[in-house]
Amino acid sequence: MRGQSEVVAALLMTAIVLVGFAIVWVYLYPRYLEWEQQASNTALESRLAASEWLVIGNTVFGSDRLDLTLVNTGGVELKVRAVYVNESLAWQGSLSLAPGGKGEVSAPLPRGGRVFWIKVCTARGNCWTFLEVNLTAPAAPPPPPPSPAPPFFQFASYDSVVYGQPGSQASFNAEVENRGGTGGYAVVGLYDETSRLIASRTVYVPAGTRAPVALSFSMPASPGVYTWHAQLNNSYTGEVDQVVLVTLDVTHAPPPAFKITDYNSTVSGAPGTSLKFVVSVINTGGSSGSLTVEVYNHTGGLAASASVDSLQPGATARLQFLVTAPQQPGNYTWSVRVYNNYTDAYDDEKNFFVIAASPLFAVTAYNSTVYGLPGSSANLVVEVTNTGNLDGSCVVEVYNHQGSLVASSSIHIPAGSSERLALTVALPGSKGTYSWSIKALNSYTGKYDDVKNFTVMTLDLSPPDTSAVLFYSLFEALPSGWGSIGGAWSIVGGVGWEGSNALRGVDNNRGPRSTSVYYWSNNIDGFSTIKALVKLGGVSQGDNIARGFALLDRSNRNARFYRVIIQPIGANIQLSVIVWDGRNTRTLGTVTVSYSTSWYILYLEYTRGSGSFYAVLYGENSAQLATLQASDTSVDPRYFGLLVDGGAAVFDDLVVATGDPRYVTVSGLTPGWVVELWRGSTLVASGAADASGTVRLSVTRYPIIQSAMLVIKDQQGAVVIRKTLDVVVGGYTYYLDP
Length: 738
Fold this sequence. Notes:
It holds the Pfam family CARDB. It comes from Thermofilum pendens. InterPro entries: CARDB, Ig-like_fold. With 738 residues, the protein is mostly beta strands. The chain has seven domains: 1-43; 54-133, Sandwich (Immunoglobulin-like), CATH 2.60.40; 153-249, Immunoglobulin-like, CATH 2.60.40.2550; 258-356, Sandwich (Immunoglobulin-like); 361-458, Sandwich (Immunoglobulin-like); 469-657, Sandwich (Jelly Rolls), CATH 2.60.120.200; 663-737, Immunoglobulin-like. Helix content is 7%, strand content 57%. It is built from one helix and 54 strands. It is elongated.
């Protein structure tokens, strides 16, 4: 009995459990299905809400009403439920708009004001705010603008179909647009047919901009057509902004696509002859396919064709055709087309030229800029190439800025060859920059084959700025305005620099401090700086004769003065600055160098305010031998002169200036241009213009040049201008005036 009771109890318990499970199942399962359906509907509504987009197409203001035209620019049907004006409910109802559809809404217009904030809301909870201005109403300050809308993301473009082989790597490409009011992060997710996330990427998109996204994934392992979807998740709002369907075609590769990559842009030959035309075609598609290449003549007729039975993806086919040139000479436009036999459509077309029996000329080299003095003649060098297949003659014509023919020349050029010719052109008579042209006239066709423009610049040197030069003399004769304090001063022939005349002074101990001085009577105390350069000749080793410059405070033998001199002592030359202050003679500075020549060049720079002296001694070839600096303010010089003490001395080529007489300056140049200064056939100096367009030419050896020539060349060495000048003096400044 006890065992039977335990069995009955167990069976009873089992029955109770089964009945309880059945009751729970019958009660809860329908509710589970209801919950699942509600969740599915909620997700669908979220996707549809993210695809809504609406704009105001037109606004009409009446005296007391506002008429709005609403346009559905989104991808799903929407219902407009309410319209607010300045945050007050102005209209409420139900207006259904299909994608692209329009609808009208009329609402009361608040009184007062010209600017209105209009908010339109749909049944799915989306709202858009717009600013509208009533230009017919009196001006009133607008209400404060609403806060910037949160980011809202939409696919601007995406791959709706992705092709590939089973199990191959593929890529989903899209462009995400932020149509909201602030920047934010969008999460792009790719989901398979079971809504399983396959790939995702987060991208930041500023408001009003787009960002590209590429998701790499593996195609399904089995052939077929799959429907996946791509989803835009808004990290800012936590909402799904958009869902789009993506089709995966795992059964077919992309179709073939053909493109012309290379071809003869021009073919030429005698009329009626066969011409070779070569074209290359590449398959840019995803599968192999057949194609037909067709060549059409200028009348649209089929001139030749050829087919390729199978061209693999990425492969190139090269085809060669023989086409017949037109019977009449001339230039013709033909075309080549590629027909895709898979898609029954033309994939690509290119035009090319057929030239029948004609030379073709091109201007291949010429002076891009021609320079010269106004009214002068200049040479224009032109290179012409015959790119045709026949020999021919070309007339090269040059036209000025007024369109007038100013030069021409005919030249015969074999096919494939180049020839050069030089034409002389007369430049405009006024300074300026002009645009001229070169034309290549084909004598065979009577047409211009090529035209090239070039620049003509007529330049000139402005008169020199001589204000920095106070006095200069070659001592061919005694200068006016000069006098002597002691000594015998005269012009002596044949003893000067290179055998010219020179100034000779013989000391007689009757000048200031027993020194003979030849001085300039013009007062120099108005100049803060005096600079001077002179050549000293007849210098004998050990002659102990002092010669050089004198700076005096008066023009008589009682003068106090500075001596800037050289003096041969033994085997050396001493460069010294000495002062006689009326009571004592003091040496302010001295430097010694070895004696080397009978001619020396002495340069002095004296600054009045500081009483500073800067002296430089050069050899006859202008090589620097010594420098000396000293200072003293015990004497206030008013006169400049030359001195000799202890014998006879020769002086030549004197320049007194406030600027540096060792240099001639030329400005207004193009950086890199070169200036040459010539003295007859001797190149005195040359230099390239710096970044400011200025060059300083050293003329220490030739500070005064008569019948000089300045030559200016461009960076390529071509002469810009060549100008003869009566005299060039150290310290002059020239300006190239365009």
